[in-house]
Specification:
Length: 156
């Protein structure tokens, strides 16, 4: 083999390694868990049969009260209770066995009184589904977005 062919092969090998090397050390975006919509998915312990998906709060004009909107899934064979504590109050939800509850969809949002959090901020809520309590920063919205209309608490 002459030196020109050998140099071409070596240069080709360096180009392949140089362009493919980034993929070897870059994390794949598809393996990173994230909330793909408005709201957050609450990371309950892995052994919990309950999932809290797309949780958000829709507040009234003064930010005093809010409506908790989320889908709560129970994959166990028994009824599950989920408690919420937001500092200004507490609430509890029951989810039937092997079922889900869609607050703000099929059912009215859960009323959160005395949140005193304006739209655009986050509200720390502690969730407990029978295991280790988990705190999540839940986004607070107002009814500016069309699909959130009617989800804030009203006085009627």
């Amino acid at each position: 083999m002459n030196s020109r062919t050998l140099a071409s092969l070596a240069l080709g090998g360096l180009v392949v390694l140089g362009t493919a090397g980034c993929a070897a050390i870059t994390p794949q975006a598809t393996t990173i868990n994230y909330s793909p919509a408005d709201g957050v998915n609450v990371p309950l312990p892995q052994d919990s049969p309950v999932e809290i998906l797309n949780a958000l709060v829709v507040t009234d004009e003064d930010g005093r009260d809010g409506g908790f909107v989320a889908t709560i899934v129970n994959s166990s064979d028994s009824r599950a209770s989920v408690s919420l504590d937001w500092g200004g109050g507490a609430g509890e939800l029951t989810v039937p066995a092997n079922s889900s509850v869609s607050l703000g969809g099929d059912e009215d949002p859960l009323l959160l009184e005395n949140i005193d959090t304006p739209a655009g901020a986050t509200l720390p809520i502690v969730f407990n589904a029978g295991g280790e309590p988990v705190e999540a920063e839940v986004q607070v919205f107002d009814e500016t977005l069309e699909y959130l209309e009617g989800l804030a608490p009203s006085e009627d």
